[in-house]
Request: fold
Amino acid sequence: MRQKLLPIITALAILSGLPMASAASPEQDLKKFQNYFKKKFPKVKWEEFANGVYAVDPIGRENWEAIEEFPPYEPFIDEGEEMWNKAFANGKHYKDCFPDGPAIAAKYPRWDKAKGMVVTLPLAINNCRKANGEKPLKYKKGKINSLLAYIAFQSRGQKTHVVIPKDDPRALEAYEKGKKFYFTKRGQLNFSCANCHVQNAGNKIRSDILSPALGHTTHWPTYRSKWGTVGTLHRRFTGCNKQVRAKPFKAQGEQYRDLEYFLTYMSNGLPLNGPGARK
Amino acid sequence: MLKGKKMLALAFVSLIITGCATATTSTESKQMAAKSALSKGGSIDAAAVKQAIADAKAAQKKAASVEGEWRDVGKFIKKAEKALKKGDLDTAMKLAKKARVQSELGYKQAMEQRKSASMSLYIP
Reply:
């Protein structure tokens, strides 16, 4: 029954001129995605995409380079180091959860087969805390950012290499969900992420130049002047959902984790350069 | 700058095309009920407002179930409830309706996007 159905569906799709939803593999997506931005910005060097909007906005870049001379995220790195080294009430440390730490940013997000879900670094940190009887940290603002800043700093120079394991179809499913999310129009303004960060990358919207999606995940947490502090990637997702007047999803909920899985995979090969500083 | 404005305009236009035309059909009967409550002597009664708020909440839940809820719906409903408490029935009714209509549009948008959203629309 199933075998018969497939050719019919394929024929229908061809007849109606519709693209087949799941025809492309992640590898094919990755190539298409990265080539799109290389072509759109032929003068931008590959590693430069990790610098977000400053790869494509020369004026903003001047300002940013001045800021990076006295990085506003530095105190957070120091605080994060203290957190990393301080024992939990039970005498254990983060190191007991992350023996390869603290330079572990490139290991995340990753597919966790046992849990059947995408595990991000912030989630792994809280799993560690809970396993050691500590209260979990908040996922958007606050202390988690300091710890993440320390880990990001220690991980600088590692390369993004998200893996979508072939031995668990649920991993591909999570990737596909994240991908679908990225291209889905939302909110009263009816915008998808891709409307701004793919189609209109490099163009101006209000007072901002839109950054290319390629490189969006290399530098978290990020100090934003607008926030006056460092914030997580999921905090940024929240803001971008809100600005199109869509209700944001829960930080570290399934939607944003899958989105992070897809989006980080799309930046595979780019160096990690967190924490970042942005307007 | 122009580009941003153009994009916004486009977004609204496409919303109007995809959304508004048929959004109201599903709750036409309820709207009629609300209207008739309005026409009776020109004022709304509290029961009609309560019904409108309940309708808005149901629509909100339905939109959320397909990840299509819009940002301000929850706020509109809260404000409607506050206005109802204060006895400002006109305001309460307006807000409840806005919350319901936006929820229906969000639901429709999400269902449409389930079918049509795809990477190849942006990167051929």
DSSP finds five helices and no strands in chain B.
